[in-house]
Write a structure and sequence with these properties.
The chain has 185 residues and is of the alpha/beta class. It is 29% helix and 27% strand. The chain binds S-adenosylmethionine.
């Protein structure tokens, strides 16, 4: 569970609309362009969801923060059931606890279509420059353990990387994990 809803509502009011992330562009260009239905899990203010809407697929979103977009539902991601081809999730995995992560990954696997995709970008736990926070929950993710967990569920990893330079903003250049996984059985 752990949602820090008030923190996120305030955060989106403060930062304003940032435009689509590089990860959203990367996923559209290389992986999800020809799928039918994409769900943005932990879509926040909808920065990437709005970008996805420019393409020819159905898009919906889930977040604990309300969004004026009628295709976004307010729900705890650990309880969400999926019925789509692609689940896209940027910077959400490190905002939830381990139990929520386990439920989320299992529900994605059960709910996406055969050969459907799970696309994840999150902060790595080997980032020794990561700031310590006291105002909202952050649980950095271990690259190897996440891949193993996804493979054990039945996913095939079709892309995996861990590096800096993927989301540079002002003085912040976090060490990030990207995993694109396909449901194969
Ligand atoms: C770092 S933001 C990322 C937002 C967006 N994907 C992006 O890349 O800008 C994390 C998001 O996860 C949402 N979130 C955190 N815990 C959640 C939960 N248990 N259920 C649903 N959403 C949650 C927060 O409300 C927030 O919008």
């Amino acid at each position: 569970m752990i949602m820090n809803k008030d923190y996120w509502v305030d955060y989106y009011q403060r930062i304003g609309y940032l435009g689509p992330s590089d990860f959203a562009k990367f996923c559209v260009d290389r992986f999800i362009r020809y799928y039918h239905h994409v769900v943005d899990a932990g879509c926040g203010d909808g920065r990437d969801l709005r970008y996805f809407e420019k393409f020819n697929f159905k898009v919906s979103g889930i977040d604990c923060v309300p969004n004026p977009n009628p295709n976004v539902i307010v729900q705890d991601i650990g309880e969400a059931k999926f019925n789509c081809d692609v689940v896209y999730s940027r910077w959400m995995l490190h905002a939830i606890d381990k139990e929520t992560e386990d439920n989320f990954l299992r529900n994605v696997y059960d709910g996406i279509s055969l050969f459907g995709l799970l696309c994840i970008e999150c902060r790595s736990d080997t980032d020794d420059r990561a700031p310590i926070l006291d105002n909202h929950y952050r649980r950095h993710i271990n690259f190897e353990r996440l891949k193993e967990k996804m493979i054990a569920l039945g996913f095939k990893i079709i892309y995996a990387g861990e590096q800096r330079g993927w989301s540079v903003q002002d003085n912040d250049d976090p060490l990030l994990i990207r995993i694109i996984a396909r449901k194969i059985v």
